[in-house]
C-alpha cells in the first residue's frame, strides 16, 4: 500500500507539472492550451536533435530547449492569440488547435515517426528498502521529478507572493481590465504566462521522454492526465494543480493495484467525476462571490 | 467479314469472362495494406521497401512468365477500421489478384473472413495471431510463426533447454499478449512448472513501477515479456532499474536493431525468438544468402541495409513469387492456392523451411533463440521444432 502511494506520488508529480503549466496559461489568459503536449513534444525533439545530431552536451541542449520553449510560448501568445483576444474565446481555442497540428506535422516531417531514445538525467540503482512493510523502492528518476516539482512549487509561491511581477500576474488573473488601469503591463504578463507554461511543457517532455520515448504523440496521455489533475484541483490555483496531480497519480496506482490495471484510467476518471459532483469547483477551487 | 468480326468479339468476350481477376498478359496486380503513415509507419514503410525491392528485382528480369508484378500498397495506419475499407477497395476497385504481406494483427483479423469469402489468396501476414491459420483457411497462407507456437517454444526453452527454475511472465492485455501467455503457461505445465508471477498490463501505459514490485517480491530467474517494441523496452528498463538480475525473453517481433537503439545499455543480454536465420560467420550459407538479399535490396535502395521489417517484406515477396512460378503460365487464384500447398520445407534466399499442405496453413513450425551480446544479435540455439 505504502509503496503504491509513493509510486503514485511520483507519477502524479509529472501530472502536477503538466497541470501547473496549463493552469498558469489558463489563469492569466483564460485560454485552455490544447497544443500544450505538442509544444513539449516539439522542444523534446529539438533537445534530442541537438544532443545526438550535433553532439551538444545534454544539459546545454536542455537549456537551449527551455529557452526556445519560452520564446515559442511568448510568440504564440503575442502573434497568435493577442490579435484575436477580443474577438472570441473560441477563436483562440482554434488557434491552439492549429498550433497542435502544425507542431505535430513539423515534427513528423523533420524527424519522422519512429521512436527515439532519450537519456535519463539521473541514473543508478534504485534505493530498495525491505522490512515488515514489504518492499519499498525509490528510483532516482522519481526523486528527480519530485525535486523538480517541489522546486517549481516553492519558486512559484515566492514569485507570486513576494515579487512585484508575480503580484502583477495575480492581479491580471483576477481582473485583467482593472490590472491595466492600475498601470500593470498586461501584455507582458500574458506573454510571460505562455512563456512559463511552454517551458513547463518542455520540462515535462524532458522528464517523461526516457519512459515514453521521443515521438509525435509522446505527451498526449500526459496532457489528458494533467488536464484532469487541473480540473480536480480547481483549475485556478497552483496549489490545486500540484495536489490534483498527486491525488490523481495515487488514485491511478491504487486502482491499478487493488481493482484492475485494465480499468485504471476509467475508474480514476469515474472517481474524479464523483468528486466533482460534490466539489464542483474542484478540491482546491475558490468560490467567487459576486452580485447576481 | 461480319462473321470474322463476330468471332473476334466472341473471343474477346470469352477471354474477359474466363480471365482471372488482376491477371493480364503483361502484368499481375497484387495489393498490400501497410502503416505508411502514423505512429507505426516505421514498420509499414520498411516492410513495403522489402517487398518493392524484391518485386523490382524480379520485374527487371522480365517478371514471371512475362508478367510484371505490380504492387498496390494501401495505407491503413495500422488501424483495423481503415484496413477493412482499404482491402475492400483493393479487391473490388483495384481488382487485385492476391494480397501479400498485410501488416498488423487486428487488421489481418478484420479482413480474414472477407478475403476468405471472396476467394482472394492472402500470402504472408505481418502478424502472429493463430486465428489466421488455426483452423486452416483455404486462401490464407501464414509465414511468420504464430504466438501459440512461439509461446510453447519459449516454455520449452525456459524449462528444458536453459533450465530456468523460477519463470515469470509479463504480457500485454490484448490478443497478442493473451495468446502468447496462454500458450506459454499451457506448455510450461507439461514440465510441471507454473510462472511464479503473472502480470497483465495495458500497452498504452507508460509506467510499470507499480507492477514491477510483484517481480521484485518473487525475484524470478527469467521473465518472459510478451509486449511490442516500446513497452517491452520500458519493461526491460524498469526490471533492471529495480535491481532484478532476471534474464529477459521476448518475442521475435522485437528482434530488430531499433530495440538496441531504444534500449541502449539495457538491451545487453535480452533474449529473443527468431525465425529468419542470422548471418553469422559459423553459418557461411546464411551469410551468402544474406549478402545476396542485400544486393537485391540495394538495386532499388542504393547503399541501404534492410531492417528486420524490410527483411519481412522481402520474404513475403519471395514466397509469393515462388508461388507464382509454381502456379504456371495460366495463372488463377485456385492455381496459386494449389501451388502454395506444394511447398515442402522450401528454402528461398531468406525464406527458410516453409511448408504448407492441403490442410496446413502454418508455414513455419520452428524457431530459434538469439540474444544481444556486445550490441549484436548472437544465436543461442539452432532451429527448435514444435512437436
The CATH topology of the largest domain in chain B, please?
A: Rossmann fold
Computed CA radius of gyration of chain B, to the nearest angstrom? 22 Å
Mean pLDDT of chain A: 87
- CATH hierarchy, class of chain A: Mainly Alpha
The profile of the biggest β sheet of chain B is:
8 strands, mixed
Task: List low-confidence stretches of chain B.
Answer: none
Q: Looking at the chains present, what oligomeric state does this protein adopt? A: heterodimer
Total count of helical runs of at least 4 residues of chain A: 11
How would you describe this structure to a colleague?
The complex is a heterodimer of chains A (about 290) and B (about 375). Chain A is mostly helical. Chain A has helices spanning about 1-30, 35-55, 60-80, 90-110, 140-160, 165-175, 175-180, 185-210, 220-235, 240-260, 265-280, and strands spanning about 125-130, 135-140. Chain A has a single domain (about 1-120, about 135-280), classed as ABC transporter involved in vitamin B12 uptake, BtuC (Orthogonal Bundle), CATH 1.10.3470. Chain A has eleven helices and two strands. The mean pLDDT of chain A is about 85. Chain B has about 375 residues and is α/β, with parallel strands linked by helices. Chain B has two domains: about 1-145 and about 285-355, Response regulator (Rossmann fold, 3-Layer(aba) Sandwich), CATH 3.40.50; about 150-275 and about 370-385, Rossmann fold, CATH 3.40.50. In chain B, about 45% of the residues lie in helices and about 15% in strands. In chain B, the strands form two sheets. In chain B, strands 6, 7, 8, 9, 10, 11, 12 and 13 form an eight-stranded mixed β-sheet that branches. Chain B is elongated and about 90 Å long.
